[in-house]
Amino acid sequence: MYDFLITGAGPAGLAAAITAAELGRSVIVIEKGKVAGPEPRGESMPQHELFDKLIHPGFLQEISGFTSTSRRFHSSADKKNTLIKIKEPYYFFNWRDLIDPLYEKAAAAGVEFIFGAEVTAVKTAASAGDDDGTATGVYYTKNGKTKELEARAILGCGGRSCPIAAHYGIDTKAAACPTVKYRGRMNTPLPTWFTDLPGEPDLQFFAVLPNSFESVAGFPPAFAYIFPLGDSCIEAGLMLRLSQFEKINNISMPTDRQVMSAWDEAKTSLSGFADFFIDTSTEYEKLTSIQNRRFIENNIMPGGGAVLIGDAVGMVDANGSAGLYYAMSQAVGWSEMLSEAMNTNSEIWSRENCEDYLSRQSKWKFYRYIKRSFKLISFFERIMFRTFGTDKKLNFIWPLISAILKSAS
Ligand SMILES: Cc1cc2nc3c(=O)[nH]c(=O)nc-3n(C[C@H](O)[C@H](O)[C@H](O)COP(=O)(O)OP(=O)(O)OC[C@H]3O[C@@H](n4cnc5c(N)ncnc54)[C@H](O)[C@@H]3O)c2cc1C
Q1: Which end of the chain, N or C, is surrounded by fewer C-beta atoms within 10 Å?
Q2: For ligand 1, what atom is nearest to the CA of residue 12?
Q3: InterPro entries under this entry (predicted)?
Q4: 30-56 tens-digit pLDDT
């Protein structure tokens, strides 16, 4: 019987594990990959005290090879563009440079890890068929064998396909926007239009209206983005924007193959964007998803015992797909609250306690920000992709779009 059993050694799971272990709790993490955070995801964020506390002061600056303080948004067909200055510089880094120190810190604090083990279901105190009993553990498979482990608190930090959420029938895919993640090396100089741009021409976002691709009929709205990271290196992607999905006519959810066809078309013919791929060697290219379509507020599972954290509930800044800080902050907050309850009270999942946790969570500053961010992005995408969702209309009202973007940044 552990105090904490954490599903998933991503940024949220690792942050929760470090915090709980440093508060004197016994912690075990089950990760399906062979290492912590097996698949690269977000590789940029602004400085927050949280990282100084979790690892050591100055950590983010140490691992970062590139910073950015501006973004440029391009209208459809790249007819207009707007430079947005952001308040805090964004630090870019390599995923492993973030994950490995988090893992090392957790291991040094006494956290136990089981790698190559996939959590498949939740064990509850309820009798068979009754799903509302308190979660007391998980079932997982390793080397073809099913095993189980018990804990006083189960943290569902399994990201976009969290098995804890799935066990309770929560569709985390409803929060997901398919996204292609790409890294490459340019063998030609940066496009001249890009280097000629006034201001600091760092990150570039290209609006892709509904139905923009010839190779895939009815493709939903999206943003294609390019981050030229120096040393001829680029990070890029195509991120579907689905907050208005049900309300825009004549679009449908593309299959994985269709997303990749649209991506190939973007690389060869999306105005402005394609200039970065003329002679670029691919280093990483994979279809994944960013959780920025919905936000699941009730994250304590029925009956208590388990709570969903990070991407599992859509803790991503829907405005800019920044999820690392929010996922880790939420994880730290829950580890602290539950550790405190374990010190004082054996009934940590009483109705009264659960109400108190949710009430405290709802007051966290970043939590309130995330909720607002989802509302704002939905409004913005309604204007951009629905109300003015044609090339002509969008370019006509671009000054309004620019004003909204500036006020939101
Ligand atoms: C392309 C892309 C770009 C992004 N860019 C940024 C950015 O620039 N800045 C930013 O702040 N955020 C960014 N994000 C978002 C950020 O990466 C996520 O919000 C963050 O990784 C969430 O952390 P998490 O721990 O909740 O989930 P994850 O990082 O998804 O970690 C989940 C972990 O759970 C494990 N797992 C899953 N299922 C099981 C199972 N059944 N059993 C055991 N283990 C399991 C996984 O292997 C994984 O290690 C980006 C995301 C993507 C996809």
Answers
A1: N
A2: 25
A3: FAD-bd, FAD/NAD-bd_sf, Geranylgeranyl_reductase
A4: 999 999 999 999 999 999 999 999 999
